[in-house]
Specification:
Layout lengths: L2 E6 L3 H17 L4 E4 L4 H14 L4 E4 L3 H10 L3 E11 L4 H4 L4 E6 L6 H5 L2 E4 L7 H15 L14 E3 L8 E3 L1
Parallel strand pairs: 1-2, 1-5, 2-3, 4-5, 4-6
Antiparallel strand pairs: 7-8
């Protein structure tokens, strides 16, 4: 299963930190890349630097028309999951989602109503207000585990630095 995250509605002056965290979470927990609905070169630079330093092949691609990207994804046989607290709970649809390449839409501001119709699944991680970063982390963890992978044990190839797990202190090694 391929997973790509679409960050929809990123506002440059307001959402830089959260969008960066969406990308870092996507990278760390198994997504192959992120489509960014914005002209924010700073987010792209930060995430590319993280990948260069810590390894892996995560990419960020800025887009200008999110609807076209969603339609292209679906034309290639992929499915679209929109994360929203108004959707069906994740455990109720996990079995349906697992066998598909997945574009996960994570909104920043109020999302356009069309996304609810374009998505194959409008999915909630509980039906209460919460962070989109937390929702993405839970979704990626649950989907990866259900497909037999543990995203918390992924080893990233390449990169300049590697953390050695330790009970106390920080141990970072240069490769």
């Amino acid at each position: 299963m391929r997973i790509v995250v679409l960050r929809l509605g990123h506002r440059i002056q307001r959402d830089q930190r959260i969008t960066t965290h969406v990308g870092l979470t996507a990278r760390a927990l198994g997504a192959e890349g992120m489509l960014l609905d914005s002209d924010d070169t700073g987010i792209e630079k930060s995430l590319n630097e993280a990948t260069a330093r810590w390894g892996g092949s995560f990419y960020v691609r800025r887009i200008t028309n999110w609807k076209n990207e969603v339609k292209k994804w679906k034309e290639t046989g992929g499915k679209v999951m929109h994360l929203t607290m108004y959707g069906i709970n994740l455990p109720d649809v996990t079995h349906e989602i697992l066998s598909h390449d997945l574009l996960i839409v994570v909104g920043a501001e109020k999302v356009p109503p069309e996304i609810y119709d374009l998505a194959d699944w409008n999915v909630a991680v509980g039906n209460q207000p919460h962070s989109e970063v937390a929702a993405l982390a839970i979704v990626l963890d649950r989907l990866q585990k259900a497909s037999g992978k543990d995203p918390l044990k992924t080893h990233f190839m390449g990169g300049e630095l590697k953390i050695t797990p330790s009970r106390a202190g920080k141990e970072v090694k240069s490769r």
